[in-house]
Amino acid sequence: MNFFQFISYHLVCGQEKSLRSDFRGDKSIQMADNSFSDGVPADSVEAAKNATNTEKLTDQVMQNPQVLAALQERLDNVSHTPSSYIETLPKAVKRRINALKQLQVRCAHIEAKFYEEVHDLERKYAALYQPLFDKRREFITGDVEPTDAESEWHSENEEEDKLAGDMKNKVVIAEKEEAAAEEPNPKGIPEFWFTIFRNVDMLSELVQEYDEPILKHLQDIKVKFSDPGQPMSFVLEFHFEPNDYFTNPILTKTYKMKSEPDKADPFSFEGPEIVDCDGCAIDWKKGKNVTVKTIRKKQKHKGRGTVRTISKQVPTESFFNFFSPLRASGDGESLDEDSEFTLASDFEIGHFFRERIVPRAVLYFTGEAIEDDDNFEEGEEGEEEELEGDEEGEDEDDAEINPKHCTGI
């Protein structure tokens, strides 16, 4: 749409009245109205009037610099949007753009295959990691004691520690030997996984006070990937030692994944995504189910007037609700906003267990992984602040040349 078409369009679509009000003093319009009133059918007169009015109003607009500038600015704003620009292209060009979109869809499907092969690689390397994770569990539970070579670790401050240690050894060696004899030597690493839950905010928010004694029995968390040829998924296995709360030795959570573009919106594909999850039934021992609480209510009989007390179990917050998740699929009904948020949070936690907690457990136990994450975020903010400072310095230099730049326009 060119500029003149744009003006005519707005005149025809109801802008005529508003523009008339801007030029009420022009008597030529009224004269044109009267000149068509005699000896001509009413429809023809009206059509002639409209044509004459449109032409004269267009002339008026073209002679008014303020109106002209306002309309040009509006036209510029419309023409600068991508969709409006595409609409102005010739049909032949649009046809070629559609061909490019088809190519893009094919690229998305190739990318999906790439991620499927990545999943196969994850499965392959998971088998290589597992012996190390099995040994990790043995050290944590105390089933195996690490050798001196396995226990040796060189810290970043090793030299400083060594010098300080040499000086102290000459003075307090006897006290150290006595303290070592009295120092407790618990089995394995007590409360290893529970400490990780306590250290990581994403997990600690889920844990209630009554969950803590149970999590202290957690001995290991494993990730298992789907078998070759099976739909893409992974399973989190939570291994517990015998306890007073439930009889399951392992609690599982299965996350189902998809690596294929959505048919309705193929361009939104950005890699595999979790689409659903399944939990497991927990075989709670009598009176030990922390996912429910018992409430007592009094009921009065309408006829006899007698009162009785009944007990009812209702759900309550607990980490172990993690194993009874919402379902994303099923009857096809859409979830409400709160349910969608809950499900998205569940997917995020499952991904965090798989990608961070299980592979780097010891660093979340010591807090080093958390410090690294915090430092990385602070570094990003620092770089952004420094960049903003540089930009402000450039603005000062360029203020006289380009005042719009320093005002953010």
Automatic annotation (TrEMBL):
GO cellular component: nucleus
Principal subcellular localization: nucleus
Acidic residues composition bias: residue spans: 369-400
Stored Gene3D superfamilies: 1.20.5.1500, Nucleosome assembly protein (3.30.1120.90)
Cross-referenced InterPro entries: NAP-like_sf, NAP_family
Highest taxon, organism lineage: Eukaryota
Annotated localization: Nucleus
Protein's recorded name: Nucleosome assembly protein 1-like 4 isoform X2
